[in-house]
Amino acid sequence: VNHLIGIKNITKRDIELIFETADQFKEVINRPIKKVPSLRDVTIANIFFENSTRTKLSFELAQKRLSADVISFSAAQSSVKKGETLIDTVNNILAMKVDMVVMRHSSPGAAHFLSQNVSASILNAGDGAHEHPTQALLDSFTIREKLGDVGGKKVVIVGDILHSRVALSNIFALQMQGAEVKVCGPKTLIPKYIESLGVTVEPNLRKALEWCDVANMLRVQNERLDVSYFPTTREYTQQYGVTKELLQSLNKEVVIMHPGPINRGVEITSDVADSGQSVILNQVENGVAVRMAVIYLLASKIKN
Ligand code: CP
């Protein structure tokens, strides 16, 4: 397969290979000369139909560290605004001899649709509430780095599960590697199908934190919410916000993760986000090495 559409489409062995490759790239990017010449003959287009800070910059940096030629496209400043379709847009970019497309889009299934309709390698950088595979890979890579292994670990994903591609990709990746997964959040933000994925729902945040090794805190995605949803931000923070006092009362050290962007003071207080228990910036750092690995492995299939 020349695409990475979702964690659902890959295997445990694929994840292991990505991590072994990322280990080597992490070593490279910590050297004074942070680049390798591996992809000098590969051209990559990053096309983003939704806003991004971490994913877009991390992909660009990963591509540059691999010596690929890179072009970046933001839908907001493009001819999409004049009515050009997704396929026309991508085919015009591909006519410029592009080998790989990294795409973020608000529609679930957009990356799969593209993979079926254009001739380039497609890498999903987030499609609506469906999947965000490289985020889940960098999250697992960070757990492995911090705790030695993902297998056997207990991970709770807290917050807006309903609108979260990060949650879904993490559930697939964690379970594939032998971790146990619970979700915690208000009923209105937990999808009904979640238990059919082998995930337990724990509505009580304290109980969830007492149970887990790792808590992955998600942002409430106000931009995807119906205005009539419950609870309000204040109620949400009271019931599901992680504070230093709560963590200190647990008598154990839970690893705190967050994919970003953080709503400081809503799902997590600043003293937790910036504490030694938080691996939030380690996740961002690892994103570059993990994305280098994914791009490198996909590109080696293009070239063969
Ligand atoms: N984690 C993540 O996807 O962040 P961005 O939306 O800033 O890319």
Automatic annotation (TrEMBL):
Keywords: Pyrimidine biosynthesis, Transferase. Residues 3-145 form the Aspartate/ornithine carbamoyltransferase carbamoyl-P binding domain. Heterododecamer (2C3:3R2) of six catalytic PyrB chains organized as two trimers (C3), and six regulatory PyrI chains organized as three dimers (R2). Belongs to the aspartate/ornithine carbamoyltransferase superfamily. ATCase family. Carbamoyl phosphate binds at R54, T55, R104, H132, Q135, G260, P261. The gene is pyrB. Residues 152-297 form the Aspartate/ornithine carbamoyltransferase Asp/Orn-binding domain. Pathway: Pyrimidine metabolism; UMP biosynthesis via de novo pathway; (S)-dihydroorotate from bicarbonate: step 2/3. It holds the Pfam family OTCace_N. This is Aspartate carbamoyltransferase. Catalyzes the condensation of carbamoyl phosphate and aspartate to form carbamoyl aspartate and inorganic phosphate, the committed step in the de novo pyrimidine nucleotide biosynthesis pathway. It catalyses: carbamoyl phosphate + L-aspartate = N-carbamoyl-L-aspartate + phosphate + H(+). It is an enzyme of class 2 (transferase). L-aspartate binds at K82, R165, R219. GO terms for molecular function: aspartate carbamoyltransferase activity. It comes from Flavobacterium ardleyense. The lineage of its organism: Bacteria, Pseudomonadati, Bacteroidota, Flavobacteriia, Flavobacteriales.
